[in-house]
Specification:
Blueprint lengths: L2 H28 L6 H33 L1 H7 L2 H23 L6 H33 L2 H10 L17 H17 L5
Helix pairs in contact: 1-2, 1-5, 2-3, 2-4, 2-5, 3-5, 4-5
Length: 192
């Protein structure tokens, strides 16, 4: 499998970890308690910073190559750029409801729940679609020179949250994710 596909799959696993954090915070909100809005803002900032500017362009390069090599397979997927734009709008909606809450503006609790839930569910659907349609079709259709060209054009930027050197603004979020993973591991039944 091409290295870029492995990288993208790893980034998808990392995004899924963030979606679990969002689910946890949404459950807290739905119970009537106060979620950690700093964590929510950090997740929003992460999605604005890394997936928007680094992860999505990688997928879009692959999609463009796929369209030129196998237009039928590309059409089965749809339009990756359009889907990424829809995801950006969902992220903005999520960010706006958090901003409203933190500015003590009136809002409906249902609006917050819908914006966060909608973001989580559509992120998962989008990741699944890429993993089941886009990536396998690209692996099948793209040739060695296509992958070489994609690799040459890639941004060398590392993930600011899940890389070995975590950017300061994401440090608290990373600690939260690690703590929850450890807690989950402790409560998991032992394998026999």
């Amino acid at each position: 499998m091409p290295q870029i596909i492995d990288i993208l799959l790893e980034e998808h696993r990392n995004i899924e970890k963030l979606l679990h954090v969002l689910e946890h915070e949404l459950e807290i909100f739905d119970r009537g308690d106060r979620p950690d809005y700093e964590i929510l803002q950090t997740i929003i900032q992460y999605f604005q910073d890394y997936p928007e500017d680094c992860h999505h362009p990688k997928e879009e390069m692959i999609f463009k190559k796929l369209k030129s090599r196998d237009a039928v397979a590309a059409s089965r997927f749809g339009d990756v750029e359009a889907e990424h734009e829809i995801e950006t709008r969902r992220l903005r909606s999520f960010a706006h409801v958090v901003d409203y809450i933190l500015a003590d503006q009136e809002f409906l609790r249902e609006d917050f729940h819908f914006a966060v839930h909608d973001f989580i569910e559509h992120q998962r659907q989008h990741l699944k679609k890429e993993e089941q349609l886009l990536f396998p079709a690209a692996v099948k259709a793209l040739q060695r020179e296509d992958w070489a060209e994609i690799d040459a054009r890639l941004d060398d930027r590392t993930d600011p949250l899940f890389d070995r050197v975590v950017e300061e603004k994401f440090h608290t979020l990373q600690e939260t994710i690690l703590r929850w993973e450890q807690e989950t591991e402790k409560t998991r039944p032992a394998k026999t």
